[in-house]
Fold:
Amino acid sequence: MRQIVQVFISVALLSAGVFSDASARLSHVVEPTFQTITLKLLPDSSGYSGTTTIALDVRAKTDTFSFHAEDLTLLTIALNEYEEPIPTTLSFGRLGLTHVKLARPLEVGTTAHLAIAFSNDYDLRANGLYKNVVDGDGYLFTQFEATEAREAFPCFDEPEFKFPYRLVVQIPTEDLALSNTPIGSEVIDGALKTVTFESTPPMPSYLLALAVGAFDTVTVPDMAYPTRVVSVK
Structure:
């Protein structure tokens, strides 16, 4: 069940009936141009937490728009235009649609920023962000085709929305994280490390990939690009 646990002062509490939900498709009144996703992933736990910030290009003056967040617990939500917070009311529709009603319209040609904190349990059915246990060790993987990214984090989960993503994961120091792009930086802080991947090229959400765990690797020599084989222990 979706729930709002806490909200910023700039956000109103959940309400229903703002949208008719006649269509399950997202509109283009706002279009995402960049998304940063930060996840705390502990493979031996039952769930995870994260934050995401999405830059939105306002294509038409509007006081409503929607995004996807299916079966996630939304902890905090804030929307800013020109760094000014705008009070916001939410309602939920089918297929993970999360509808946003603003206290005042966004102006065409501006950039707004949507910031969300959330949590979820790992999926156990190989959908979204899921967990496998092999010989007592937990491993995390993603499967976002065709519309499962919305079960892992808030997003614009339709293939016509193509824009860059940046993944940042906090994981156990001894574990390995893999994604679509090379690692840009890695910072160790005690038992955990923060891995920041380089930004992706413009791509739809279903092509994002992530794996975390105590993997073994073997380097493949004499390849045109750096190559390695990765497996569980």
